[in-house]
């Protein structure tokens, strides 16, 4: 039980650092466009979750539910790539500065990694 509590505390600390980096990237450089990364990374796991729930849980129809799960993975991958590419695009256009882009990308990756780690840590085992 103590190992689980330490894991939750460590993941919460990493999540706080990620949010701090993204908020500082917008506040220090006076451009609040980098906050879009937080929204992107918070929305990114949703297609995987929704499509995983919509897939047919029947073992005999595995090929039919696979397309829905693959579509969810595609949408999640698109949102993760967009979370990295959006600050790079904004920096390339001159709307944000390069240090703000770096802080935003690192903070966003920490946020997304923490969300995935939380979901893997609290995933229920399905017994038949």
Automatic annotation (TrEMBL):
The chain crosses the membrane at residues 7-29, 71-90, 102-122. It is found in: Membrane. Keywords: Membrane, Transmembrane, Transmembrane helix. It comes from the Eukaryota. Its main location: membrane. It is a multi-pass membrane protein. Pfam families: Vps55 (PF04133). Belongs to the OB-RGRP/VPS55 family. PANTHER family: LEPTIN RECEPTOR-RELATED (PTHR12050), RH04491P (PTHR12050:SF0). This is Vacuolar protein sorting 55. It comes from Lepraria finkii.
């Amino acid at each position: 039980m103590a190992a689980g509590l330490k894991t939750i505390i460590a993941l919460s600390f990493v999540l706080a650092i990620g949010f701090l980096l993204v908020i500082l990237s917008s506040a220090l450089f006076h451009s609040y466009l980098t906050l879009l990364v937080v929204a992107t990374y918070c929305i990114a796991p949703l297609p995987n979750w929704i499509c995983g729930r919509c897939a047919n849980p029947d073992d005999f129809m595995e090929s039919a539910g696979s397309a829905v799960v693959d579509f969810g993975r595609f949408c999640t991958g698109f949102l993760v790539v967009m979370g990295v590419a959006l600050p790079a695009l904004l920096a390339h256009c001159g709307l944000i500065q390069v240090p703000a882009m770096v802080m935003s990308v690192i903070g966003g990756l920490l946020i997304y990694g923490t969300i995935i780690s939380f979901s893997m840590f609290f995933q229920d085992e399905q017994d038949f």
